[in-house]
Amino acid sequence: MKKKIRVLIADDEALGRKEMRRLLKAHPEVELVAEAEDGDDAVELIQKHAPELVFLDIRMPGRDGFGVLDALEPPLPEIVFSTAYDQFAVDAVRRGALDYLLKPVAPEDLARAIQKAAERINLKGPAIRKDGRLRATDRIFVQEGQTSMFFEVGSIRVLESEGNYTRIRTAQAHGLVRRPIKYFEVRLDPGEFFRANRAQMVNLKVIKECKPIEGGRLTAQLEEGTPIEISRRQARAFRELLRI
Amino acid sequence: MSKKNLPDLIPEFLGILAGVVAGGFAWFSQDVIFRGAGGVLLFPLAGVVIGLAWRGSLSGAGVASLFPLVDGWRSGWPEAGGLILAAFLTTGLIRSVGEEGGIGLRGMIVVPLAAGVTLAAVLLAQMLSGQVPFSPGFGTLWAEQALGVMAFAPLVAKVGSDFLSQMNRRLLAGWLLLTVLLLAVGRIAADPSLDPATALALGLLPVVILFWQAMRFGRTGASTACFILALVAGLAWSDNNPALLSMPSGALPTLLATIFGTAYAMAALRDERLETHTWTSQAAEAYQVLFWRWQRGVGVDWDDPKRAAAVGLRRSGMGWTLCPGWYSDGELPDPAKLEGRISMDVRQGDQPSRWLDFSGVVHTRDSDRQPTTVLGVVFDVTASVEAEREKARALRREGELRALRSQLQPHVVFNALNRIASLTMSDPPAARDLIVRLSRLLRAALLAGEKESVTLREEISLIGDCVALEGAGYGDRLRFRDEIPETTDLNGLPPLALLSLVNGAIRRGVGMRKKGATVTLSMPKKGVLRVSVQPPVPLKEDSEFTPWPDPVWQERLLVEEPLRARIDVQQEDGAVASADLVLLRKTG
Q1: Nearest beta carbon to residue A15 from set B414, B473, B513
Q2: Domains (range + CATH), chain A
Q3: How many structural domains are present in chain B?
Q4: Residue A168 pLDDT greater than 50, yes or no
Q5: Using CA atoms, how far apart are residues B194 and B202, in angstroms rounded to an integer?
Q6: Which of B410, B511, B513 has its CB closest to that of A85?
Q7: How far is Cα A137 from Cα A100, in angstroms, rounded to an integer?
Q8: What is the mean pLDDT of residues B245-273?
Q9: Cis ω for the linkage preceding B562 (within 30 of 0)
Q10: Do A84 and B420 touch (CB under 8 A)?
């Protein structure tokens, strides 16, 4: 038998959860693992149950939907926003969320969202890598001012330390994550991302060429943008890494 | 009628205490420094105290004007009595006129009554102690001093309140230093063995200093007031010559002061010219509209002086409160440069006050009422008012759909539909009830564009529908209380304004809290409809969610023509505790 998709509902209204429960009954391929009544509850339950798909209400007391995403450790589950009327949910989808549902929810919209989620989940394969590292298909939630975005790990070009935050850059956009760059050193695949110096990590894919400069350091030319300097200490590690 | 809480009365008690202590001290000490120099020192000081009390409360201001007693002391009790009574009368009178909504009757009766009782007590004490024999000149002296104080009271109060409105720690320290200096000078000058020329020179020194101090504030009015005060006191540098303050030699300064004080008070009491700028009630509207637009970062064209120019003033006592906004002398403040600093003081959903001082400089103030920024100046008003109104008319013409969207938050509708969708399976009668309620709300929203006004009962009925719809989702988290008696009705309410306040309170107060909140609808006084939320709604500038109260509504009400209502906000510890819909026109 095919494995069921593990689903969590986060909605502060009892009637809202009830309605979603009812609608999900029509989908034997999903399994409801938990229901959260507010944002903090949602964070706790998502961490506890590690669902693959979350129907996330945006307006909730405590943390709102984006606050929940901000608090979660990557990799994020597939997120489907559910909202009565929030333009920014619709925008969020454009910026990488899986889908959104407008309440009251039409059954065919729900079917479409679940279908999409199933495809993504199959594509990603097993839920978590054994070494705890993030996969290229995993998503990271980033914010830039009032804008929230989801970046696929594979699309990240450069990570830059900004104090306790890290700025993540893709080819198209950039935004902040409320975690220090050290965190990503542990979570990203060392075969894909390299800590070039104290402040920067770089996706090895985007390095075009490397030249030695004085002091035993290297300068890495990227496909585009400012070159990145690889510190003396890291230059040794870098050479070793490339020999492998 | 709302009753004052005991803690609210603390400033009054302090004012009374300060007045009694200072007056008593002056009266009984018989200290030489209160001769002559006392006049110079204590009038401005009295002004500060009165100004303080002015901010606090009515009776505080009245009692604080006990200070002139110090002056009266020199000539014995009849003068003192006259001074006290006149000061009470004047302050009470001016305050009663100046107060918005009018406490006229209370001001005019209670204050003189209190003064009379105080006076009687003072008289009695004096009689009993045998200190003061009855004087035949009683009547003349009384009348003369009363006239003088009628002039002085507003003047002194104004100077005092200006001082306060300008006051920061540095200024306060300077003022204290100055007081000590003047005390010292007074002590020396009051020595009867000094020759008259030296005494006069010393007497004029405080005049110069006071004038210089006043000029520092750059306000001709305050300067003049100070100058006249000081001049009077300086001329009365009697104490080698007490006759200077009496008729006829005291007549000139008294007359001058009377003319100036009266003219000033009259100007202040009417919405008329102060200095060279014209204020109108239109200005108040225009400025508020602009302010909201500016605060929300839309629609103010700073290159067009006419549009950027607007002033809103609200009278408060002798002073002028500039309603949130700014005021400029032709040179417009650059919003980009001001923004960062203003944000210290201005918060969305708040109605911060700015004080317009005598010369027309506008400050932002922090929570300790200390000036933080000088904002600058604006006038010319009519053009911008007209432009805003035109915009409002255009907005109204934009059609019903637009009206529906902005009158009734879309969330209300869609959340309601979601709840109904859920209930249709589990509880069809409840679902039906909600559908009826929702249709009533939708109908009201569609008609709101056409209807000029609604009655309170109509609005409360809709609020009931709204609460029922939201309550279906929030359950116990939403606690709603309607404290307005069912028999109470008003007409002339702008359609859906009160509903939007209640709805916003629910969304921001209840929806954002796990334990929910209590939303209360009440009418603290006629024509003021209050929506309070307990616990209060935190101010979140950066929130993506609509603040409470919704600034769109605040703006919308201000561009209504004719102006019918405005929304006032009360805060507690940086959170909005309640919002009042204040009806501005006669309601029946």
Answers
A1: B473
A2: 5-124 (3.40.50.2300), 147-243 (2.40.50.1020)
A3: 3
A4: yes
A5: 10
A6: B410
A7: 20
A8: 38
A9: yes
A10: no
Structure tokens at B274: 């102060």
What's the token pair of residue A12? 């502060």
Q: Does residue B72 share a domain with residue B218? A: yes
The amino acid at B293: R
Q: Considering the domain boundaries, does residue B388 fall inside one? A: no
Chain B residues whose CB is inside 8 A of the A12 CB are: 511
B76 and B206 both lie in a single domain: yes
Contacts of A88 in chain B (CB under 8 A): 544
**Claim to verify: residue B332 and residue B407 sit in the same structural domain:** no
In a domain? residue B450: yes
Choose the closest CB to A14 out of B411, B475, B514.
B475
Mutate to test the interface with B, among A13, A58, A88 (most CBs of B within 10 A): A13
Q: Which residue of B has its CA nearest to A145?
A: B542
| Domain termination site, one of B333, B355, B383 | B383
pLDDT in tens, A55-83: 999 888 888 888 898 898 888 899 998 88
Q: B235 vs A150, which has greater pLDDT?
A: A150
Inter-chain CB proximity A19 and B421 less than 8 Å: yes
Please give the pLDDT value at position B396.
56
- On whether any CB of chain A is under 8 Å from the CB of B422, the answer is yes
In a domain, B460, yes or no: yes
**What pLDDT does A49 receive?**
93
Give the gap in angstroms from C-alpha B515 to the nearest C-alpha of chain A: 9
Q: Is the peptide bond before B248 cis (omega within 30 degrees of 0)?
A: yes
Peptide bond into A104 cis (omega under 30): yes
Q: Convert the pLDDT of each residue in B348-380 to its tens digit.
A: 223 333 322 222 333 344 444 443 333 332 222
The SS3 of residue B295 is: helix
Tell me what the mean pLDDT of segment B45-72 comes to. 44
Chain B interface includes A84 (CB < 8 A): yes
> How many Å apart are CA B426 and CA B428, to the nearest integer?
6
Distance between A92 CA and the closest CA of chain B, angstroms: 13
Residues B373 and B406 in one domain: no
Residue B469 contacts residue B444 (beta carbons within 8 Å): no
- Co-location of B192 and B159 in the same domain: yes
Q: Compute the distance between CA of residue B54 and CA of residue B165 in angstroms, rounded to an integer.
A: 12
- Do B46 and B108 lie in one domain? The reply is yes
Give the separation between CA B102 and CA B529, rounded to whole angstroms.
18
Residues of A in contact with B430 (CB under 8 A): none
The reported pTM is 0.51
Q: Where are the beta strands (DSSP E) in B182-238?
A: none
ipTM of the complex: 0.75
With contacts defined as CB-CB under 8 Å, which chain B residues touch A22? 422, 425
Nearest to B241 by CA among B196, B305, B204, B292: B196
Q: Do B410 and A84 touch (CB under 8 A)?
A: yes
**Token pair listed for B19:** 């007045």
Domain that holds residue B479: 398-583
State the smallest CA–CA distance between residue A148 and chain B in angstroms.
12
Same domain (yes/no): B340, B421: no
Is the minimum CB–CB distance between B542 and chain A shorter than 8 Å? yes
- d(CA A36, CA A8) in angstroms, rounded, equals 8
CB within 8 Å: A59 and B413: no
Q: What is the pLDDT of residue A214?
A: 83
Q: Is residue B275 part of a domain?
A: no
The confidence score (pLDDT) of residue A160 equals: 93
Among the partner-chain residues A22, A40, A88, the one whose CB lies closest to the CB of B544 is: A88
Name the domain boundary from B269, B298, B327: B269
Is B242 found in the same domain as B94? yes
Q: Are B348 and B324 in contact (CB under 8 A)?
A: no
Look at B475 and A84 and tell me if their CB atoms are within 8 Å: no
As a whole-number percent, the residues of chain B with pLDDT over 90 amount to 11
Q: Between chains, do B414 and A88 touch, taking CB under 8 Å as contact?
A: no
CATH number at residue B502: 3.30.565.10
